[in-house]
Inverse folding.
């Protein structure tokens, strides 16, 4: 019986993640708009939310492709307290099998004019050396982002990010 329990535990550990459940919260007091997105592996159920209303989270699922998991990035834009155009970037990697590679999340924020020049390949490289938590703050625009990814949901990574402005 003990070996049967070990077998079940081992099997549950190697169960593939079938995607990522993503929750984004806008705390900038103005609507945010999707600027661009990329799916390196996996795909959306429907489409990425085009807007995020102030104070309201949006949630969506990004499904695994079966081999490499769910790996994607989104860029949302809005304005800070001074009316400056800003951007918030969130990228995640929820591999199909976490015993081969860990879940990772990467986040950055700042002036939209600067982040417009940030290519998705650069974001992917930064994601590759990140961990399960990422936070960024830009003093010039007084913007911040805090993101985490964990395995709290059965067979699905849970990604959470909050986009904010610093008063």
């Amino acid at each position: 019986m003990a070996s049967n329990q070990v077998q079940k535990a081992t099997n549950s550990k190697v169960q593939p993640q079938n995607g990522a459940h993503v929750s984004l919260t806008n705390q900038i007091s103005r609507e945010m708009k999707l600027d661009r997105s990329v799916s390196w592996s996996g795909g959306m159920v429907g489409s990425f939310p085009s807007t995020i209303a102030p104070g309201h989270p949006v949630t969506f699922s990004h499904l695994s492709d079966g081999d490499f998991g769910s790996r994607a990035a989104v860029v949302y834009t809005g304005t800070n307290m001074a009316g400056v155009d800003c951007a918030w970037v969130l990228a995640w990697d929820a591999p199909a099998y976490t015993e081969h590679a860990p879940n990772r999340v990467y986040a950055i924020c700042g002036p939209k004019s600067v982040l417009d020049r940030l290519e998705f390949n650069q974001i992917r490289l930064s994601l590759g050396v990140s961990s399960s938590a990422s936070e960024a703050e830009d003093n010039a625009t007084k913007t911040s982002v805090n993101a985490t990814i964990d395995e709290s949901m059965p067979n699905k990574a849970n990604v959470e990010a909050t986009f904010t402005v610093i008063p």
The radius of gyration is 17 Å. The chain has one domain: 16-165. The CA atoms of residues 21 and 166 lie 27 Å apart. Helices lie at 2-13, 112-115, 120-128.
